[in-house]
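Revision sheet: structure tokens.
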Amino acid sequence: MSTPIRHLTRNDLGQLMLTLDDGRTHIGIVPVRAYPLSAPDEGLSLMSAEGHEVLWLDRVSALPEKFRTLLEAELAVREFTPQIAALISVSSFSTPSTWTVDTDRGRTTLVLKSEDDIRRLGDGRLLIHSAQGLNFAIADRTRLGKASRLLLERFL
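Predicted:
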């Protein structure tokens, strides 16, 4: 498959620089997945620094490896989502509530502003949006330990 991308690299400031086949160059490109949770390979928008779409890509996997690797590295930073392995404690069973959790990145605390900040994704998966602006994921709530499940059930 042919791609309208002539060149994709990082400049000295670490910004993504995109040159299209028509010769136009865009600096500060931000990749945004259309369906990051349900279909991460389908639909990728390359946005300008001003927030305008520069290029739409149907499939990330269809890109040449050199471009795909660079975009996936940028997406990994943008979509950083620690995985919760255990709930250690909660400050209160009403919100806002401060949770202490063990994640794949270590122990941390998060503030849950509202029960609405816990999103059910199906198959036991949860996405938890903290007051600090970070998302945390639970891959399968049924696989959490009993104590973690009991704490979590109070908020579901």
